[in-house]
Each structure stands twice: as C-alpha cells, then as structure tokens.
C-alpha cells in the first residue's frame, strides 16, 4: 500500500463527530433529557435521539434496538449510582463513546469514571456552546474532563484502576447485584431473600465474583469497589 493510500485509510478510520447520527441519553430527569435532546438535534442536525430513564431500560433498549453511535449517561440513576452504569454499558457496547454527565465534579469521581472507560465527563451546568464543543471533541476521539480537574499523580495507580474497572465489567448483571448488596453489608441469607435465589446460589456467585476481581475476602471486594466508585450511596 502506498503512503497516500495509507494516509487515506488512516483518515477514514479516524473518529468524526459527523459520523454520530444516533444518540442514546440515559437520564431519569425528563426536563434534562428533553433539553439535551433538543440541543443535540439543533446543534448536530440529529433526527434520532433515543432516551432511557434507567440503566436497566438502557441495557434492554440496546439489546433490542441495537447500539447507538454515542451515549450520554447520567452519573446517578434510579438503579445505578457511581461508575456502575458506565461499567455495565461499557461491557455491552465496548466501542461506543460514553459521556458521563453530572453535577458531581469531585476529583475522585471524575477519575473513577475516566478509568472505567468514559470518553469524557461533563458538568450539568455547562452552557449550550460549551456542551456542544465538549461533545464534538469527544466524538472526534478526545478525552474531555471539566476545567480544573487534576488527575491523581502516578500512571501506575491510573493503570491499576483501569484494569480493576475491566475486571468489574466482566461480572454478570446478577453478580453485579450481589456485589452491590455485599457492599451494603448484607449477609448471604439477606442477599438470598432479597434476590429470591437459594443461599447456595449466592455462595456460588460470590465465589465467581471473588475470582473475577481477584479478591480473597468480602472486605477486600468492598474496598476494590470503592476504589473505582462503583456504587455511590443514595
């Protein structure tokens, strides 16, 4: 292949905001969802802007309707708070850019979201022009974070969190539910009752969870989940 052909191929594979034609907004606030959809339609000329009010609804919609070109994901949903929603969707649509949107601009939360695979993290208080600019940059392959965000020092810690997020992404939906309950301090019997499954089944799932995230004890599993801000308190 000649150099011009190589360059042409490279350019054709480069991410472009113009290729984003279908968006999925995952947010449980109707007004926020409608405002975002209207902004996207006007600013990017989009005709197909889908929405989901919960993580479960988003997962089901992607399963039945296919993957969108990009996702805008609220940090706190009725059935997922913290980076859980991001980890879950990243498992389902690994190549789709996901933008986390939130009023929470805490350094640790932004870092956890970026480690979990977010293409960017934006504030809900952004003006329309800043929002459109941030999304365009993300859809062109740039990783975008709020002004003033300072990544934690040391690439080793960042790489470890990225790897940890990948491990959590390997959990099945049922295993994620069980891990969430473990992090809430629930005993096996309580988990069994809450999920309407046998206690032996709970133990089997916990064994699989520990193996996947490389944890030996429940307390260690909770610590690892907290490291990537997997579950935030309501």
TrEMBL record:
<feature type="modified residue" description="4-aspartylphosphate">
    <location>
        <position position="74"/>
    </location>
</feature>
<keyword id="KW-0238">DNA-binding</keyword>
<dbReference type="InterPro" id="IPR051015">
    <property type="entry name" value="EvgA-like"/>
</dbReference>
<keyword id="KW-0597">Phosphoprotein</keyword>
<feature type="domain" description="HTH luxR-type">
    <location>
        <begin position="164"/>
        <end position="229"/>
    </location>
</feature>
<dbReference type="GO" id="GO:0006355">
    <property type="term" value="P:regulation of DNA-templated transcription"/>
</dbReference>
<dbReference type="GO" id="GO:0003677">
    <property type="term" value="F:DNA binding"/>
</dbReference>
<dbReference type="Pfam" id="PF00072">
    <property type="entry name" value="Response_reg"/>
</dbReference>
<feature type="domain" description="Response regulatory">
    <location>
        <begin position="22"/>
        <end position="139"/>
    </location>
</feature>
<dbReference type="GO" id="GO:0000160">
    <property type="term" value="P:phosphorelay signal transduction system"/>
</dbReference>
<dbReference type="InterPro" id="IPR011006">
    <property type="entry name" value="CheY-like_superfamily"/>
</dbReference>
<dbReference type="InterPro" id="IPR058245">
    <property type="entry name" value="NreC/VraR/RcsB-like_REC"/>
</dbReference>
<protein>
    <submittedName>
        <fullName>Transcriptional regulator, LuxR family</fullName>
    </submittedName>
</protein>
<dbReference type="InterPro" id="IPR000792">
    <property type="entry name" value="Tscrpt_reg_LuxR_C"/>
</dbReference>
<dbReference type="Pfam" id="PF00196">
    <property type="entry name" value="GerE"/>
</dbReference>
<dbReference type="InterPro" id="IPR001789">
    <property type="entry name" value="Sig_transdc_resp-reg_receiver"/>
</dbReference>
<dbReference type="InterPro" id="IPR016032">
    <property type="entry name" value="Sig_transdc_resp-reg_C-effctor"/>
</dbReference>
